[in-house]
Design goal:
The structure is a single chain. By secondary structure, the protein is mostly helical. It has two domains: about 70 residues; about 50 residues. The protein has three helices and no strands. The mean pLDDT is about 85.
């Protein structure tokens, strides 16, 4: 009967051998896929770490420039004159200008007086000399 079984059996592996070979092939493929995914994850992690480092460096540079700008603004604010002091100085200058305008008008009036007096004196001298 053993000979009959061998004659009836088709050539090639048995169902059990075939199923076992399929399982081993699936296990090999899954292992390869898991390894590929692990490599991809590692590459992504490395790229992510590089991107984070670049972002941190860029943010640090930006914050440095912002801090420099703040320092410039602080220096500028300390060198500027306060508004109240500027207005006080401007009003004092305006008063001085008004005083000068007033005194120049008074000076002009005085000058006209001296000129008129001088002209009268010269005219009196001419009349006195002509009458002689």
């Amino acid at each position: 009967m053993a000979e009959d079984d061998q004659e009836r059996r088709p050539p090639g592996p048995t169902w059990q051998e075939h199923f076992h070979a399929l399982l081993e092939e699936m296990d090999r493929r899954f292992s390869a896929a898991i390894l590929a995914q692990d490599k991809a994850v590692q590459i992504a992690m490395i790229a992510s770490e590089k991107a984070v480092v670049k972002a941190e460096v860029a943010a640090e540079k930006r914050f440095e420039s912002v801090n420099e700008f703040r320092a410039q603004l602080t220096d500028q604010a300390t060198t500027f004159m306060p508004r109240a002091e500027a207005e006080q100085r401007l009003s004092a200058l305006a008063e001085k200008i008004d005083d000068l305008k007033g005194s120049s008008r008074a000076g002009a009036n005085t000058l006209w007086g001296y000129l008129l007096g001088g002209a009268s004196l010269i005219l009196a001298v001419i009349v006195f000399l002509a009458a002689r």
